[in-house]
Design brief:
Helices cover 78% and strands 0% of the residues. It has 132 residues and is mainly α. The radius of gyration is 15 Å and the shape is elongated.
Length: 132
């Protein structure tokens, strides 16, 4: 399960709300992929993965605007991580869709969820610490 815990909160209401939504999307993708049932529903998985990617981009935009507003000193480094993430998922997603090898979709979902969790715990938490 990809469950939100209060310990993941960065203390910024809008960003926490968006993080929770990312967790909801991640959970939906994981539930669809249980027991490899996603192989019979590849279009549903692709839609969920695309929703997760698009919402991540939207969230990054919100987060970056907030960092600029509070003059976050590590903005460039943080934005670079977002940019690298987007580049990685775009490349992986295109590969998965082009080859119709849905194992790539499963790998992509796991990559997305691991990255989101680690990024929140290691990087996003610093935003509230530095801006307070």
């Amino acid at each position: 399960m990809f469950e939100w815990k209060d310990s993941y909160s960065v203390g910024i209401e809008l960003i926490d709300h968006q993080h929770k939504h990312l967790f909801d999307l991640g959970n939906s993708a994981l539930n669809l992929m249980k027991n490899d049932s996603y192989l019979s529903k590849p279009d549903d998985v692709i839609l969920l993965v695309n929703d997760l990617i698009q919402y991540s981009k939207f969230h990054f935009s919100t987060e970056e605007s907030y960092m600029l507003k509070v003059h976050y000193p590590m903005y460039n480094e943080h934005k670079s991580e977002h940019d690298n993430f987007i580049q990685k998922i775009n490349e992986t997603n295109l590969t998965a869709l082009a080859t119709n090898e849905y194992i790539h979709i499963k790998d992509l979902v796991h990559f997305l969820l691991n990255w989101i969790l680690n990024h929140i715990l290691e990087k996003d938490i610093l935003i509230s610490k530095q801006s307070s």
